[in-house]
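Recap from last week: sequence in, structure out.
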Amino acid sequence: MAMLVDALAKVPAPLPLPLPKGVRVQPVAVEEVAARLAEPAAAEPAGRVPDMGGPEIRTLADLGRSYLAATGRRRRILAVPLAGKAYRAFVRGGHLAPGRAVGRRTFADFLAERAARTS
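Predicted structure tokens:
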């Protein structure tokens, strides 16, 4: 999300930042994903690994607003409806794993840690 908003923020102000409308995501910390991937890599082959997701489900627009606020930027978010099967599947939430919300770090935690590193 940080990379996406940083890239979109290069659009000259006062233009709003376009983000896909109605898409929810379940961000999970890269360190938590790495630790989860290391477990089966060190074990005997066991087939498909269960899905995993972060501790909360939020819209892209909400995460974008949080990121902009945390980085001191003032921009509007424009929720843009897209077309296609993949977009409709994302809006339906087919990529989410609410029953496997095993991540612990929230996006707010990520933003706070990032702010602490850059101050």
